[in-house]
Write a structure and sequence with these properties.
Elements: H1 70-73
C-alpha cells in the first residue's frame, strides 16, 4: 500500500523492525526524518530494487524524470528465501 506524508497532513508512519519499506519524495525539496530503535549498522543494511519485477510497485511517477541514488539503483530484485 502507499501512504502520503506531508507537512500539511502532519502524519507519520510506523514501520516495525524487519519490514521492508521505501519512499519517494514528490517535491523539489523535502526532509525525511527517521526514528529508529538502534544505531546504524552498515552490515545490516539491505534493499530491494525499486523496479522489482515480482513486487511490481506502482510508484505513480515517470522514472526517467527523477533522481535515484546509486545505492538504490544497485539493489537487486526481491527473492523468496526457501528453507
Amino acid at each position: 500500500f502507499s501512504f502520503v506524508l506531508s507537512g500539511d497532513n502532519r502524519k507519520a508512519l510506523f514501520i516495525p523492525k524487519g519490514f521492508a519499506h521505501g519512499y519517494l519524495t514528490i517535491s523539489d525539496k523535502a526532509s525525511v526524518n527517521y526514528l529508529v530503535d538502534n544505531y546504524y549498522n552498515k552490515n545490516a543494511e539491505r534493499g530491494i530494487s525499486y523496479k522489482d519485477k515480482f513486487l511490481k510497485i506502482d510508484w505513480g511517477v515517470d522514472f526517467s524524470k527523477i533522481l535515484i541514488s546509486k545505492k538504490d539503483m544497485d539493489f537487486s530484485d526481491y527473492k523468496w528465501i526457501k528453507k
